[in-house]
């Protein structure tokens, strides 16, 4: 029964984030701008030195500028995201593909939290899992909290989740969350129908509006 409630909560978040077409062509562009600001915040945060130092070796980044978690007893969480993948040979980063992240939880909880979240993809398995239409974190790819502070231990996992948040919750747990593509946003941003594999693997499309984000991921000013 608990699993059913969790699934229902996740479904509600997904319904709100991923099935509605963007209200205007500017929506994906705003998300890219917000993702750029979030990545800048992470690279400047003194508590996220490990993230900053290991960014050059990351396989990819899934950036969620506004991850909302709220509820009472039955909780839900979610946010829109962009995915960039690094070409290990060339050292360059792809243009962004658009996704949504949604999860649900059941238990004694109250309040709300707004967080900036970045998933650092550390393995080929984690990168390849994101090429599917949807995946479940913890099942299709392992996920652990990213190390914070000096001397932190690093888990052996496909994906490391980092967050910067303020609210009544102590942190953001993404285990069990569903990551799904936002096909309408991908089409709106690139002007034609494209899949994530076209954007981040074949690299058949581009949009210069995302160059600041790509340069920041490559740590170029």
From TrEMBL:
GO molecular function: phosphatidylinositol binding
Source taxon at top rank: Bacteria
Stretches assigned to the Ysc84 actin-binding domain: 103-216
InterPro entries listed in its UniProt record: SH3_domain_YSC84-like (IPR051702), Ysc84_actin-binding (IPR007461)
Xref: PANTHER family: SH3 DOMAIN-CONTAINING YSC84-LIKE PROTEIN 1 (PTHR15629:SF2), SH3YL1 PROTEIN (PTHR15629)
Designated name of the protein: Ysc84 actin-binding domain-containing protein
